[in-house]
Amino acid sequence: MSRRKLYILILCFALAGYSWVILNHLLLKVNNPVPDICLFRQVTGIPCPSCGTTHAVLSIVKGNFRQAVNENILGFPLTLIMILFPAWIIFDLVRKRDSFYRFYFLAESILRKNWVAWSGLAVLLINWGWHIFRTG
Amino acid sequence: MEAQKVDMFLMMNAKFFEAHQIPFIRERMLALDDSKYIMLQAAGFKDPTISLVVSLIGGHFGIDRFLLGDTGLGVAKLLTCGGLGIWTIIDWFMIMGRTREVNFEKLQQFLM
């Protein structure tokens, strides 16, 4: 993947992410039901590993960290990614550098290492199990 | 490399690549040394149909992207409920093309 393609892709994702969070915030503000977009939950009735992250991100923004933990712990890394990555890319584009591009492939190679992948999977499964257990 | 060997390889592996890539692959393989044939045979290309099946079943969790080695995108898909469900559906149509692209990138390592 070229640098240009990766940066455009991540900026588009960030834009979609921010739009989605703002839409949810506005809907919740007027007590409107939030649309359920999770295909897995609609088909099986069980929440997927990332269900609840939008609410968690909104809780983190409002400073309710305990509530965010209850909604989904994955909200924390996602918030960090949503703030850090677009800022990093814009910094790269302004300074005409490719530090994020190199970081992305370095991160991918680290994530592909067996012990990192298996630990990540274990954390994810534990979080998912806890999430299913808590939501009943 | 002999034309007969190249044609046999293409006949067996054409489904792993885009149709427009075949003439280029043939041309480069003909110029290649015979000793590379075994390595090409053992390269282990990914089947686009298998990718599609994985995408239909596990696409929501980004498993299709992990399978192709797009770990970053796989994590992104996993953390965002399959890209709000939209990316999951888009990937049902895109994943076969991406698999062929990945196969071509892999083949190029032998052809260069």
Could you characterize the architecture of this molecule?
- The complex is a heterodimer of chains A (136) and B (112).
- Chain A has 136 residues and is mainly alpha-helical.
- Chain A contains seven helices and no strands.
- Chain A is globular and about 50 Å long.
- Chain B has 112 residues and is mainly alpha-helical.
- The longest helix of chain B is centred in the C-terminal third of the chain and has 26 residues, at 86-111.
- Chain B is elongated and about 50 Å long.
- The mean pLDDT of chain B is 86.
- Chain A binds chain B through residues 13, 16-17, 20, 37-40, 48-51, 53, 74, 77-78, 81, 104, 107-108, 111-112, 124, and chain B through 60-61, 69, 71-72, 75-76, 78-86, 88.
> Approximately what portion of the residues of chain B adopt beta-strand conformation?
under 5%
What level of helicity do the residues of chain B show?
A: over 70%
> Total strand count of chain A, please?
0
**Amino- and carboxy-terminal Cα gap of chain A:** 41 Å
Q: Rough shape of chain A?
A: globular
The number of helices of chain A is 7
Average predicted confidence as pLDDT of chain A: 87
Q: Profile the largest sheet of chain A.
A: none
Which band does the percent of strand residues of chain A land in?
under 5%
The number of helices of chain B is 8
Order of helices and strands of chain A: HHHHHHH
User: What kind of oligomer do you see?
Assistant: heterodimer
Please state the overall shape of chain B, judged from the principal axes of the Cα atoms.
elongated
- What is the H/E string of chain B? HHHHHHHH
